[in-house]
Write a structure and sequence with these properties.
Structural class: mainly alpha
Oligomer: single chain
Largest sheet: 2 strands, antiparallel
Helix content: 55-70%
Amino acid sequence: MTRPVERIEEDIQNLKQNVSSVATELQKNYGDYLVQLGESIQKQLILAVYHLCTQGYPEKFLHLSLNQRQQLQQSARQLGRKAAQQLLVYLETNIPENTENAQENPPLEVPQAKSLDFSNPIEVVQWHHNAEEGIQNTLKTVSLEANLLLQKAGLLPKKLPEPILAAAASEATTEVIAGPPNLLNLVIEITNEKESEDSTLTQLVTVNLRLGDIEFADHKLLEKSKQIRVTLLQINKLAKEYSKKNQELKTAQAESAWRASWFDDI
């Protein structure tokens, strides 16, 4: 027999309090993680560009003037700092409405975060999904911009279309061989503009920032990632219980409504 509606609602309220507590811990852990990730991205980006310039295209790098080399290095550093800032902004846009910072930092990129209920485990899981998606988009964007910098500097072929660079910067790319982290080796076919049937195979080394490589190179970041996974297991467990309780509540309410409307024929 279904339990009374009041008892089920009480269970749901208690469950939501537990979710809020765990979600607060998750948000704090995620904030720490994003700060550390931003620092790691800056270091790993510079290291990837260094390997590309000194091992991937040493001759082309040597042909650059001192000023051109310095400009490339400075642009890479600025790009890394920009990525770190983007990660923090993304976290701020996902702060729930009932926090002190909500009105001081209104949503910038994710409007739905304004009404986010952190006592609802299903919304918390979605929030985490959005945050993970944001991280991957940031890595992809930074990789593409880094490759465009290298192309502008003359290290990557000028004729290389941007869609190729975008594909090389994608986290989904699987054509990765052993070598320095956050770099991608690939072979593409470049067609001669004058001779449409004349094409050459060109081997490229491009920047391809990957979260796995970044975490592996940073012990602190990896530990923070593990903490987040442990908290997420709790959230997912609560989300299943929450869905089950809400289904039980709907059934109890439906049964109550049936009894309220039922009358015997006279």
